[in-house]
Design a protein that fits this description.
Two copies of one chain form a homodimer. With 193 residues, chain A is mainly α. Chain A folds into two domains: 84 residues, Arc Repressor Mutant, subunit A; 92 residues. Chain A is built from seven helices and four strands, in the order H-E-H-H-E-E-H-E-H-H-H. Chain A has a three-stranded antiparallel β-sheet. The longest helix of chain A is centred in the last third of the chain and has 41 residues. The first copy, chain A, is elongated, with a radius of gyration of 22 Å. At the A-B interface, helix 1, helix 4, strand 4, helix 5 and helix 6 of A face helix 1, helix 4, strand 4, helix 5 and helix 6 of B. Strand 4 of chain A pairs antiparallel with strand 4 of chain B. The structure holds a DNA duplex (28 and 28 nucleotides). Chains A, B: It comes from Paenibacillus auburnensis. Chains A, B: Pfam families: PadR, Vir_act_alpha_C. Chains A, B: InterPro entries: Tscrpt_reg_PadR_C, Tscrpt_reg_PadR_N, WH-like_DNA-bd_sf, WH_DNA-bd_sf.
DNA sequence: TTAGGCATGTAACCCGTTACATGATTTG
DNA sequence: CAAATCATGTAACGGGTTACATGCCTAA
């Protein structure tokens, strides 16, 4: 009911809606599966778990917490929590937040710094290629045992977004590397004269 | 020298490196030309201008501040400021920051909320199409009077990134809308039986 | 003359990361 | 048994948005 929560709370509610999890597990799932478009830190997750518990949107799961495994605290979503999640799903999507430092640097660079930018773009290219490959494994797994009754279809749509982004990154990297190399050769010809 | 400044300071230094500007003009330029991968608010710009001035990296430009136009304060970059900018250009690029709320919602949605998601994706599609068209105008302008001696080439590389992203957004939107529509029809068939 | 854009600035607040602290459990 | 990983949590700090306050200037 008391809407306008921070996004971390919805990440928690969304994940708990599927299965009972501890704070640590939530962090791992976000890192493993959502990291290409989202991230959370422990410093957000743990306090938020307490807050959501005090508000009754989630609860410590006694079923998942047998005496012999004390150190991990699993949480489960409550009915009010599910309602809150559904309401958020329907609310308007906020504009995405994007900050590409590499584009900022490129924008402020000039012909003289082409060699520096070349290195930056190369790094950009390889790091994204690595990330893309990791996600392709996950995608292949999902596609094999697709379950119509869970949200596998939705997850595939999300991964498809990532896939298209990475393709765009790759195409841009190659194009830009070519252009920067041209700049460098042109520069060298200049100084030769 | 005292490195590790916030990003706002480099945006300011980068823009002042091209021409003398006021805080208000800086904000407008960021909104007009960088908004697809960066943004700044007045609450960051004005205090940062003061800080950079007190550090001697920029200075109030007396030349650009004739008595008759008092209300606008133009700043110019200093030599130490240019050095600081060059150092930052060479430093490693920080990983980009991305948060797509629409993907979060899609990830946590299920077959039952396909109609809601359909609306969200439609909104996503049109808003990006609008933005893309605005930037295509700017790009066309730039390409006509390309100046080799300023950083026009670099700006075109940045715009090409945006172009490829928007193409990816468009392709994903269409693909996803089709899939969601399929979900909805399948759902209706289900309830018909 | 009044509305809208130009222009600067501050304060409150929220968000988010990082560093730190602590301890249990597992594995080589 | 030592190192890595699992696990929870807090505090400090810095980043960044929003709201607010103020006033000038210009064009309908």
């Amino acid at each position: 009911m008391s809407s306008k929560k921070n996004k971390t709370s919805y990440v928690i509610l969304g994940l708990l809606n599927e299965e009972n999890l501890s704070g640590y597990e939530i962090k791992r799932i976000v890192d493993d599966r959502l990291s290409f478009f989202w991230n959370e830190s422990f410093g957000q997750i743990y306090p938020e778990l307490k807050r959501l518990t005090s508000e009754g949107l989630i609860a410590v799961s006694s079923a998942d917490r047998p005496v012999y495994s004390k150190q991990s605290i699993k949480y489960e979503i409550t009915e009010p929590g599910r309602l809150e999640l559904q309401e958020w799903l329907k609310s308007p999507v906020e504009k995405e937040l994007i900050r590409f430092e590499i584009l900022l640097k490129l924008y402020f660079s000039n012909a003289n710094s082409s060699d520096t930018m070349l290195e930056h773009v190369k790094e950009f290219q390889t790091s994204h290629l690595r990330q893309q490959q990791l996600f392709q494994q996950f995608e292949a797994q999902l596609k094999q045992n697709i379950d119509v009754h869970s949200n596998h279809r939705q997850i595939l749509m999300v991964l498809s977004f990532g896939q298209k982004m990475w393709e765009a990154y790759a195409a841009w990297s190659e194009e830009t590397l070519r252009l920067l190399e041209q700049n460098i050769t042109a520069q060298e010809d200049d100084t030769d004269e």
